[in-house]
């Protein structure tokens, strides 16, 4: 498995507010992305979107 570090400043805005993120790992970036998807699409649509993405990967590919 490869170690990946991320250096990023993410600023997100929406009608109800805004926020800033500075993820340092893929896990943190994923949490931010999922949080923003839920804000944009709602929980069920975000789940469906993420499920579509994971359909591209075989279970063995996820363990690499």
Describe the structure.
The chain is α+β, with helices and mostly antiparallel strands and 64 residues long. Helix content is 50%, strand content 16%. It contains three helices and two strands; from the N terminus they run E-E-H-H-H. The protein has a two-stranded antiparallel ribbon. Strand 1 and strand 2 form a beta hairpin. Helix 1 (26-41) crosses helix 2. The longest helix is centred in the middle third of the chain and has 16 residues, at 26-41. The protein is flat, with a radius of gyration of 14 Å.
List the helices and strands and how they pair.
Blueprint: E1 10-14, E2 17-21, H1 26-41, H2 43-54, H3 59-62
Antiparallel strand pairs: 1-2
Helix pairs in contact: 1-2
Could you describe the largest sheet, including whether it forms a barrel?
A: 2 strands, antiparallel
Please tell me how large the radius of gyration is. 14 Å
User: How many DSSP E strands?
Assistant: 2
> What is the terminal separation in angstroms?
6 Å
- The side-by-side strand order for the widest beta sheet comes to 1-2
In DSSP terms (H or I, runs of 4 or more residues), the helix count works out at: 3
Key attributes of the depicted protein:
single chain; 64 residues; alpha+beta; 3 helices; 2 strands
Describe what is shown at a glance.
The chain is of the alpha+beta class and 64 residues long. It has helices at 26-41, 43-54, 59-62, and strands at residues 10-14, 17-21.
């Amino acid at each position: 498995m490869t170690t990946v570090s991320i250096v990023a400043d993410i600023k997100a805005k929406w009608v109800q507010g805004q926020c800033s993120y500075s993820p340092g790992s893929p896990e943190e970036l994923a949490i931010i992305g999922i949080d923003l998807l839920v804000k944009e699409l709602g929980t069920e649509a975000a789940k469906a979107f993420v499920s579509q993405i994971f359909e591209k990967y075989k279970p063995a590919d996820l363990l690499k």
